[in-house]
Design brief:
Strand content: under 5%
Structural class: mainly alpha
Shape: elongated
């Protein structure tokens, strides 16, 4: 049974990571809107320039598309041009981070981490997220997001005790984190062979407030997999 549950954990984690990377990026972009609005409201030239550069970097690295025309143009580009655009976006992010403009430079560092994870540079991604999480000058919502992404990236490889510790801190931050964090803790249970504990957490996701439909659907899929009879 333990081996079957651990095998399931591997499959669930791989599927969850692909889905939740998109979820995390979406949350990060939503958070970005608030921080960017604050920066622009300051009406400083430097803040506006940094914000514009950040949005351009998101566009060039494929994480922000503007209108159907942009999508059509992007689809028409060959891989060489796409890679060149991506590299330009990476350079722009470096410049925004170096500008140290409050708020937007942190968002740029978060995006650097996301891109590093996307490219398989896990150590670099973890270091960048950890730097944001431990920087007390950073807005708390971005610190929390960095901590979650740090945990998410190594949910199947990191020290379970350390991951649980960080995740419980987020869980105590309020209802906004309940869904994603409970899902993460359930995956740790599956990974360690704690089937009943995982089922309890996943079942709770079906009734908790402030849990997205996507999280509920993933919970239902994992519940069904955990309850499935052994193959053969």
């Amino acid at each position: 049974m333990r081996k079957r549950v651990q095998s399931l954990a591997g499959r669930c984690v791989n599927a969850w990571r692909l889905i939740s990377v998109g979820v995390a990026l979406l949350i990060m972009l939503i958070s970005s809107i608030g921080v960017l609005a604050w920066n622009v409201s300051q009406s400083t030239k430097l803040a506006k320039e940094a914000t514009g550069s950040y949005l351009m970097a998101l566009q060039k690295t494929g994480h922000l598309q503007i209108g159907s025309l942009e999508k059509t143009n992007e689809n028409a580009k060959n891989e060489t041009i796409k890679k060149a655009e991506f590299n330009i976006g990476v350079k722009i992010l470096e410049q925004v981070v170096a500008s140290k403009v409050e708020g937007v430079s942190t968002l740029a560092k978060m995006q650097q981490a996301a891109l590093a994870a996307q490219e398989g540079q896990t150590t670099k991604a973890l270091a960048l997220w950890n730097a944001v999480q431990t920087n007390h000058a950073v807005a708390p919502p971005l610190q929390d997001m960095a901590s979650f992404l740090w945990c998410q990236q190594q949910i199947d490889t990191g020290d379970p005790a350390v991951l649980r510790s960080r995740l419980f801190v987020l869980l105590n931050k309020g209802k906004a984190w309940q869904g994603l964090v409970t899902e993460s803790l359930a995956l740790l249970d599956i990974r360690e062979g704690h089937r009943d504990a995982a089922l309890k957490k996943l079942t709770s996701l079906m009734t908790l407030d402030n849990v997205s439909d996507d999280v509920r659907k993933r919970a239902q899929t994992m519940i069904q997999a955990l309850n499935a009879p052994p193959a053969g």
